[in-house]
Design a protein that fits this description.
With 325 residues, this protein is of the alpha+beta class. The chain folds into two domains: 77 residues; 231 residues, Jelly Rolls. It has three helices and 13 strands. Strands 1, 3, 4, 6, 10, 11 and 13 form a seven-stranded antiparallel β-sheet that branches. Strands 2, 5, 7, 8, 9 and 12 form a six-stranded antiparallel β-sheet that branches. The two termini are 33 Å apart. The N terminus is likely disordered.
Length: 325
């Protein structure tokens, strides 16, 4: 009778006792918890390098009112003929500014000019470099460049840059910002030029070499926007300082060396007697890629996967043998 009862009740395949079911739940739960933990660790290993990307790089500001700031002047000529060293016809620092003036030039001095080049601009990465997405160059200056003659101005000024020791590249027209310095930049914020200029309206260059049938207009760089004309009230000793701002975008470029160059060009023979280019202040800002979006996306994926595994673990426990706690 006892044997029949045991067979009828299925004693040969008895369901787990409550404490056995709890043990299974603990083992299953422990397994899925380990899975979640491992997934989170792997996710963090993935996103830590992203979070470790260089922050916004500290700006480099050059206040020429306090000195030459390590910039280097260099006279240049296409045919070996340099601009005269008299009458300030080469870049010189004095009276709180860098200046270059020019008297009317004759044939030997055509296609001459001057470079004013910054020291190497270092970045804040661990190796003195940084991954950069964008640059902003802000300039407080004034100038008197003659009007164009047959499509070519007798004198012009150009802003150029070099990355990692590469050739200097003229900033294109599209890089220059228009409007007012009172409008904050969406990436870099407020303009630093307010204390150094006498107007808020931005001045952008419009002349682009080559032009006038010439293959090149040395020392200007082909394709680079060049300043021409005259700023309000310009004289060699006075006039209104005006703001110019250019921004450049890069696809996550690692920069270890950046240099800025101001190029003054004597291209013709009818420069006015009171002509020149004066520079009061220049600042370079660099923006690093923001890790926020990638970081949040990776963390979100990790947490979502962890949540799915946790739900799976709960379903596994709930769908266990009948009567499981």
């Amino acid at each position: 009778m006892k044997i029949e009862q045991r067979v009828a009740s299925g004693a040969g395949c008895r369901e787990p006792q409550p404490h056995s079911r709890r043990m299974l739940g603990r083992v299953s739960g422990g397994f899925w918890s380990v899975c979640v933990f491992v997934l989170i660790v792997l996710g963090m290993l993935l996103v830590i390098p992203l979070a470790d990307a260089a922050p916004i790089v500290v700006d480099d500001a050059y206040d020429f009112g306090t000195g030459p700031q390590g910039w280097t002047a260099q006279p240049v000529g296409k045919n070996g003929q340099l601009p005269p060293s008299t009458n300030g016809q080469r870049w010189t620092h004095g009276s709180g500014q860098w200046s270059v003036n020019w008297a009317p030039v004759s044939s030997p001095f055509v296609a001459t000019g001057n470079y004013l080049t910054s020291p190497s601009i270092n970045f804040s990465g661990p190796n003195g470099d940084a991954e950069v997405d964008a640059l902003r160059i802000s300039l407080a200056h004034k100038f008197n460049f003659s009007s164009s003659l047959n499509g070519v101005p007798p004198a012009a000024g150009q802003l150029a840059y070099s990355i990692n020791g590469g050739p200097f590249v003229g900033l294109p027209v599209s890089a220059f910002v228009t409007g007012s310095i009172t409008t904050p930049d969406p990436v870099f914020g407020a303009s630093p030029l307010g204390p150094y200029v006498g107007q808020t309206t931005l001045v952008a260059p419009a002349f682009v070499p080559p032009a006038g049938g010439y293959a090149d207009l040395f020392p200007l760089i082909n394709g680079g926007a060049s300043f021409t004309g005259i700023t309000p009230g310009y004289t060699n000793t006075g006039g209104t300082w005006v703001p110019s701002v250019a921004t450049l975008s890069f696809p996550s470029t690692v920069i270890s060396d950046l240099r800025i160059r101001l190029i003054n060009a004597n291209l013709g023979s009818n420069c006015p007697a009171d002509a020149g280019w004066d520079v009061r202040y220049l600042q370079v800002d660099a923006a690093a890629p923001e890790p926020g979006s990638l970081l949040l996306a990776s963390m979100g994926g990790t947490l979502a996967a962890g949540h799915w595994l946790w739900r799976r673990r709960r379903r596994t426990i709930k769908s266990g043998p009948p009567g499981q706690a």
